[in-house]
Structure of SF4 helicase domain-containing protein:
Amino acid sequence: MATRLEQTILKNLIQNEEYTRKVLPYIKSEFFQERDESFLFKQVREYFLKYKAVPTPEALIIDIDEKDGIDAQLLSETTNLIQEIKSDTSNTPEKWLIDSTENWCKDRAVYNGVMSSIEIIQDKDGSKGQIPDILRDALSVSFDTNIGHDFLDDWEPRYDFYHTEEERTPFDLELMNKITKGGLPNKTLNICMAGTGVGKSLFMCHVAASCLVQGKNVLYITLEMAEEKIAERIDANLLDISLNDLQDLPKSMYKKKIKRVQEKTKGKLIIKEYPTASAHSGHMRHLLQELDLKRSFKPDIIFIDYLNICASFRIRAGSNMNTYTYVKAIAEEMRGLAVEFNVPIMS
């Protein structure tokens, strides 16, 4: 018989103390549909709150046997459930389990809230004013305990933050490091501004090449030039030759120079081309997930060439919207992407 999620949750509540401490405050006995599972959860919770440790299967069986007023069928079902959990020695990935437990708690809370609301509606004497509170409580179920920074109580982590050196991606140009106080911090959107034809893309190719040499994983997204043209510029920068000389370079010499670069760095550079004005933050989020899944590639910095010719995820192209508002929306979405993936984005 296939293992149900509820049984997996109960198993880890008994076997995994770290998991139990994270999820126990959010799970309620009424979330379990089966009578024996709900009863077993109550016993696990009672034991943990009393002894501050996860119970052993033997301790649970003894506690259940000593309880008064339990019918024989429930006692037998619960004992069999404990024995089944005890015999299951498989390991469940903790991150997946926590995410699945949170989703399960949300689903069960909403289901129970809706059913309670229906009962109140059907009951002529029921107070319908309770329904909004019931549904609000059900929808607010979340494992995220961070609901804000308490200025007075949270002084210590704030002090530690003040004295923690922020992780930055440095430039290979001393002046740029001076201006940015050591480089580009994570979770930021950084814009390189200059006139037409001055060399913004050349500058970004230079910075991308320097990040690669530092051993960083670099993702370069281009909506203006072809992938091959961006790669050509980065090639010329890394190999320290002109674009004209690069075209005349023999294949054996080119291979030797690339091998030399590979030996110097542990980083990777991925260049992805999108048609102009066709890609928004949703496409780029999907790209990042695909790279992680298929190539185990997580960028340390992302370059987007360039912001103004991206699309907006929220605003439909061609809508009655001025340029400032549209570009501002794109910038906000890219900044959100930088925060989500904890990387600096340069455009």
Q: What stands out?
A: The chain has two domains: 5-106, 168-346. The first strand starts at residue 168 and ends at 169. Strands lie at 168-169, 184-185, 189-190, 218-222, 269-273, 301-305, 345-346.
